[in-house]
Predict the 3D structure of the following.
Amino acid sequence: MNHRIRIAGSTPLRIGLLVALTLVIALLASPPAGMAQGGTCIDDVTGRTNNCTANDVRISELRNSEDISCEAGSDVELNLRARLVGTSNERYDLGTFVALDGGDARTGTCQQDYLPPPLSAGGTCSGSGQACHWDGDCPAGEACTGGYDPLSGAGPFFNAEAEEDENDLCGDIEQAVETFYDLVTVTVPCQDMNGDGYLDIGTCVSWDNQKNNTCVDVSGAVPNTKAKCSCEMTTVGNVIVHGSIQVTKTPLPDTLAEPGGNVEFTFVVTNPSQATVTVDTLEDSVYGDLAEYPETTCAVPQTLEPTQSYTCTILAPVIGDPGAHADTVTAAGLDQNEDPVEATAMAQVIITDLLPTIVLTKTVEPVQLMEPGGTVTYTVQVENQSGVSDPVTLTSLTDSLYGDLTDPANPNISDSTCELVEIEPGEVYSCTFKAEAIGTGGTVITDTATAQGTDDEGNPASASDDAAVTVTPSLELEVLKEVEPECVKSGEVATYSIVVTNPNDIPLDLTMLDDDIYDDLTDPDNPKISDSTCELVTIEASDSFSCTFEAVVVLTGTTTSLTDVVTAQATDRAGKTAMDTDDATINLCIVPPDTGVGMPASVLAGGLAGLGAALAAAGAWLRRRSR
């Protein structure tokens, strides 16, 4: 931006007004030398990308007000003096940019400054009276009275535009005259970019090569073209940058149940600086020299180039009472200047108070009894699942129905082996007792056993479990047997039907279906029957099974009827049995027997030899007919 002020005329009044206005502008628009200027970097304030190729002026050196050192990676506060050198003809309206963010001063955060008033266009030599700009223009031993002072750092600075632009308030530079300027106090990152051991700061200097651009404050001290600037990393020759290291220590795990255990500690040593460092010791406040620890991957010395890291581990025990167990590692060594570097890191492992844990398991045998119930045997197991250092001592072992299981005088139980004992970690204590489980059918008798105890620190533990005995009702089975027709002639075939009903609420397996005359009705090879559909099946709850069979009815002597009994037996899945019987009677028809059917006389006569033999012969005859 060009700031131009024009006042017409040249009368003494106008000249006086011009001088007064110039002073006002200098006081209000321009800060005094050394005042901090908030701003950004050269490309930011110009709004363009400058190529800075002219190199007519450069900041050849920066020096701090005192010799100091800083640790790489930290921030350092500086009071800098810049040495400005012009390599071409006069250059005007010089501006300076000092990077505050570690960058190159082109973009980012910078301290922008300029050569402020007072300015001087020149004077006369104190002895010879000849014209001069500064003392260097006068003979030896003379001073340039009224001239500028390029060596003071605070001015007056050279005003090369006094004749052409009397309104310009920004300092200029002569060719080959080194001009020093004391910059405002700045805080910058401590960094050695070229590895020479000294602080480096990104800087730019800008100028104008035209006298017709009026500059009245810092905002006008910018390059008038993209090329009129010079940017570089400038060394602060009296600020030594020490190398630095950082170290971290990480435990895995970071929490252990008492009494503790092994922990893998990981150590990472990092060189964040631009200097090479050598780490020659890794010392832990608890475990000592990490390179000598039994289970370690650590070794020293380790040379770390800039930004390089070294990682190693140890496997170490952390044992003790509940609480935080902390230790500190110290990494130490030398940087490339043989200056010491050191860093520490602390890690802690928490040992938690492990409360005792017990688990109770209760079982019973048998789990089912037919009403009215009976004696069962209970087994109680107590497992100590606490840590390796916590035995548990039982203080009570009780049952919700049967009371104190360890009391030998308890009338509710018998044959108890239960006692109050100490259970080591990981061990299981087991005992048994007997008791009566009595109830009506369908009753479920549930009782709960509870164990209580304490660990060696007095912390309580308890556990419970229950067991159930089911009293089942007596099983029932119903059998119905019928025969058709109502009467037959001796030697004729009758058809029997059987219905077996399961009235219970559980399924039953039919295990037997026998007849007192015709034997096993489910046997396909039974010679006394034919066409039997009877078999051993599962009868679901509240369901029935029906079957039929045929048999020859043989009546002997004066017998006028025949009655036979069928017996059915079934069991449930627990092995309980139910049984029932029923009979059916068939009568002798009064009509004389008709022998025209071709039945062998031996069959009819069989009754004389006995009913059993006759039935066998009749069955054989029926099978032959069926062929």
